[in-house]
């Protein structure tokens, strides 16, 4: 969740110069209604945020940590007291507004001003056997002391089935969540045997601190701690894998990272004659068309993240004067040595000016323009800190002709500080664009090589024709922050101005 001190409105969907505070919400329930006949309920939480007057679901969380409750009506919108008071308790309501029995919910808010994260690996040896016809199904819970003196759950591991010697997957948790950023603060670790009815059997517990784990992190185990349960011989082993900083998109932007924006425009014949009102390139009396609308919607947001606001604008699929050869990588200002346009206005002016001087042709080849931007992104891989990230916006009306070459180009670009946004205009079949957008499957080149990460976001313009331009911009840029962070994190590149962990 984000909290904007001073009521700042920010720059747009992908970030803000004001919204630089992160707030973690921790949720716990009491006396919830029992919805199962033979066992207890299996409650889960879902966080909804109000967007343009509608409630939109944020990714649901398993369990009750760092989430909000969607099982029952929670609380009125715009209630900012949760942030100011740090903790708020409300009566749970049913959909009809009546109390849900004696059910209560408590939400605690904590500002995540410390961006350090800790990675831990945990194991157990000779745990108690709790199941009558098997071994145990152990899991761990980590607690920190709350302001009210009670222990507060901050992390729960996965359940390891049928074992007395579990090895849990390494996990990463914000240091401020685990111990409020205080490495000397005690942490309580509890071990349970999982039962499907919710009545988990207690195996044992111990207390430690991050400082203690740091003292012994060169040795494994960090500690062989007796679980103070029924079996005194049971031990827990832990290994501190490291404390690092978890930089956000805003950390990189505010640290000085520049988003290098390039536009690629489809001038193939399938768009229609630009002088014909039925053409997708026809500029109507209002001075716009779908290509211009997409350029404005995306460019007006992106330009705030580039200090010089000089953007290359390239075209493809057209015959150019004077020899009328087809080009899939030409500067729309007809200056191949300097294809830069000044701001979004400059792109729009160059686009409008070039239309009468080119002949729409084909085919629809994407790979030349992808490779063009990739060459510059490849040069930026020499950076020692996160200084540049390249964004290619391709606006197109139809099916890709060089699909094998484009797939290969995208797979290679996935290794670079680069993202590709495709906006499909018109009513064509955009199945190929959906294929490039690796949301549902990993993109592979025609040789079988997998993309290192998903860098393509496809959005059909027709879904947003009657929506505010901000809605289109938000959809187009939805995945960009995580793509930027993912690349720099994978390369272990900090923001330009950052302190070591």
TrEMBL record:
InterPro entries: C2_dom (IPR000008), C2_domain_sf (IPR035892), C2B_Copine (IPR037768), Copine (IPR045052), Copine_C (IPR010734), VWF_A (IPR002035), vWFA_dom_sf (IPR036465). The keyword Secreted does not apply. One of its GO terms (cellular component) is plasma membrane. GO terms for biological process: cellular response to calcium ion. It holds the Pfam family Copine. Keywords: Calcium, Cell membrane, Cytoplasm, Membrane, Metal-binding, Nucleus, Repeat. Residues 99-224 form the C2 domain. PROSITE patterns: C2. The keyword Calcium applies. It is found in: Cell membrane; Cytoplasm; Nucleus. GO terms for molecular function: calcium-dependent phospholipid binding; metal ion binding. Belongs to the copine family. This is Copine 2. It comes from Anas platyrhynchos platyrhynchos.
């Amino acid at each position: 969740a984000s909290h904007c001190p001073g009521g700042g409105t920010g720059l747009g969907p992908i970030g803000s110069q004001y919204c630089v505070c992160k707030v973690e919400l921790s949720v716990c329930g009491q006396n919830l209604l029992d919805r199962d006949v033979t066992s207890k309920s299996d409650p889960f939480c879902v966080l909804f945020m109000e967007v343009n007057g509608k409630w939109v679901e944020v990714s649901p969380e398993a369990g009750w940590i760092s989430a909000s409750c969607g099982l029952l009506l929670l609380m009125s919108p715009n209630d900012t007291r949760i942030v100011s008071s740090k903790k708020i308790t409300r009566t749970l309501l049913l959909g009809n507004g009546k109390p849900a029995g004696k059910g209560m919910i408590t939400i605690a808010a904590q500002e995540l001003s410390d961006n350090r994260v800790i990675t831990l690996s945990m194991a157990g040896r000779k745990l108690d056997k709790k199941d009558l016809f098997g071994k145990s199904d152990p899991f761990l819970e980590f607690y920190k002391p709350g302001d009210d003196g009670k222990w507060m759950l901050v992390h729960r591991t996965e359940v390891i089935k049928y074992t007395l010697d579990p090895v849990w997957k390494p996990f990463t948790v914000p240091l401020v969540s685990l111990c409020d950023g205080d490495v000397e603060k005690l942490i309580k670790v509890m071990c349970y045997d999982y039962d499907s009815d919710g009545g988990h059997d207690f195996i044992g517990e111990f207390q430690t601190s991050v400082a203690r784990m740091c003292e012994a992190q060169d040795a494994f185990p960090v500690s062989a701690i007796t679980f103070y349960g029924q079996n005194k011989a049971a031990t827990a082993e832990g290994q501190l894998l490291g404390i690092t900083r978890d930089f956000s998109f805003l950390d990189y932007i505010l640290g000085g990272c520049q988003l290098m924006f390039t536009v690629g425009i489809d001038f193939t014949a399938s768009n229609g004659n630009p002088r014909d009102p039925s053409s997708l390139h026809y500029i109507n009396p209002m001075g716009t068309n779908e290509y211009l609308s997409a350029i404005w919607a995306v460019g007006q947001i992106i330009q705030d993240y580039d200090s010089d606001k000089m953007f290359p604008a390239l075209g493809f699929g057209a015959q150019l004067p004077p020899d009328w050869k087809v080009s899939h990588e030409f500067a729309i200002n007809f200056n191949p040595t300097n294809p830069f346009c000044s701001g979004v206005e400059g792109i729009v002016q160059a686009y409008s000016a070039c239309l009468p001087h080119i002949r729409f042709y084909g085919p629809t080849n994407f790979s030349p323009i992808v490779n063009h931007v990739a060459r510059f992104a490849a040069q930026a891989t020499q950076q020692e800190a996160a200084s540049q990230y390249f964004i290619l916006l391709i606006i197109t009306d139809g099916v890709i002709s060089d699909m094998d070459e484009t797939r290969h180009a995208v797979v290679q670009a996935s290794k670079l500080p680069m993202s590709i946004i495709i906006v499909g205009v018109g009513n064509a079949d955009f199945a190929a664009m959906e294929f490039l957008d690796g949301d549902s499957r990993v993109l592979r080149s025609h040789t079988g090589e997998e993309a290192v990460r998903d860098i393509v976001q496809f959005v059909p313009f027709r879904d947003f024709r009657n929506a505010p331009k901000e809605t289109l911009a938000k959809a187009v840029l939805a995945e960009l922050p995580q793509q930027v962070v993912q690349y720099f994190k994978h390369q272990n590149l900090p923001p330009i101005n950052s302190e070591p962990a």
